[in-house]
Amino acid sequence: MRYHIWTIGCQMNEADSRRLAAALEQLGYEPAARAEDADVIVLNTCVVRQQAEDKVYGRLSSLRPLKARRPDTVIGLMGCLVGRRNSEHLRERFPWVDVFAPPSDPTPLLDHLAERGLAEMGRALRAEDAARRIPGPFLLSCQAQGSQVTAYVPAVLGCSHACTYCIIPYRRGPERSRPADETLAEARALVAQGVKEITLLGQIVDRYGYDLPRQENRTPLVGLLEQLHEIEGLERIRFLTSHPSWMTDELLEAAARLPKVCEHLEVPVQAGDDEILARMRRGYTADDYRRLIARARAIVPGVSIATDIIVGFPGETEAQFQRTYDLLTELRLDKAHIARYSPRPQTLAARRYPDDVPPEEKERRRKVLDELQARIAGEINARLVGQTVEVLVEGKKKNRWWGRTRTDKLVFFEDARDLLGQQVPVRITWAGPWSLIGETGSR
Ligand code: SF4
Question: Fewer CB within 10 Å of terminal CB in the chain, N or C?
C-alpha cells in the first residue's frame, strides 16, 4: 500500500504533510513519488490567494479520470480549502474525493483508512491523539529519516487577528498554542531522527503561549525558546511568522542571547501607508514598524529581516503605493515577498471594499517592488563576498551542496566530502539577490 501527498502553500502545510506522512507510515503505507502509483492520494491545500486555489482545482480535476479508472484509490483533500467547518459544498462539487480533512487534523483521513481495513493501528493513533488533533509520536517519514536536516514544528495553530484581507482565521480557526511539553516532545523526536534545525511555526508565532497558563510579565515564546535550546543535538532554532505588535524587546534579547537561535526574523509589514494598514486592520503604523526594525537591529547584531507586502489592496492609490516603495527603500530589508491583493471569500475586505485596483496595475506595482527588492538584496548580499559564513548543509543539487546561513541566505558550493547535516565554513565568492556561491577550499 502506497501514499502520495501533494502540498501547496505555507510552512504550516509542509509541517502538516510531514506529520500525515509519518502517521500513514505507522499504518503500514509506503511513499510513492507519483500520484498514479499510490493507493492513497492526499492534496494538502492552500486558499490564501486565488492563484493557489486554482492550482488545487487543476490538481483535483486531474485526479478525476484516475479515480474513474481505479475506484479503490482513496482521494483525500486536506487543509485550508476544506477549513474547519462543513465541507458539504465540496462533497457536491468534487464527488470523486473520498474524504475531507481540516488543516492540521488528519483524523478524518485516518478514520476513513481505518474503516477500510487498517483499523487497529488507525484507531490506536486516533484515540491517543484525538484530544490535541495532531498525530504522534512525531516521526519523520521513512524518506526523510537521516536525510532531513531542518524541520518545522507548529507552536501556534490558527489565528485570531482577523486582518481584513486574510482567510486564514476562517479556515484554520482561532489561535491555539500547543502545550510546551508537546511541542518540545516533537522537537526532541525530530532531533533524535537527525534533524539539526527546528523552526517554530505560527501565523503569529510571537503570540505563542498567551492563551496558556504563564508567568506574568514574560514573553511566553522566550520560555519555549529557552527550553528548546536545551535539547542536545539541536544546533539551530528559528521562529516564524512574527507580528510586529508582539515582537517584544525580551524576545529580541532572547534571539541575541541564545546561541542556537538564528539572527533572522520574518516580520511582515504588508504596506507602508497608515490608512491602508488601518483598513487591513494590522494594528500598527509604518512608524511603529520603522521603530521595530531599529530595535531589532540594535538588539540583535547582524540580524536579517524578511517581510511580506501586499500590493493593490482595495483603494490603494499611487501615492499610497509610493509610501510602501519608500519604506522598503529606507529600511533595506534582506527579503520581501510581494503579493498582489486577491479578494478572499468571507473576509471583511472582500465584503466591504471593491477590488478596484486593475490586475495589470497590481502586477505593475508587484514588479516595481520586486525589482527594488532585488537591487537591495543584491547590494546587501554583495557585502558578503570574500567573507566566510557558517552554512548548515541541507542537501545536494547537481553536484553542488546547498544550505543556509544563520541569516537565512541560500548558499551553494562544491565539495567532494559528505557534508549533509554539517555546519561548514564557506567563503563566499559570488552573490546575487536570491543566493550565494562559495567555496570550502576542499574539492
Ligand atoms: S495575522 Fe493577519 S495575515 Fe496573519 S494569519 Fe492572522 S489574520 Fe492572516
Answer: C
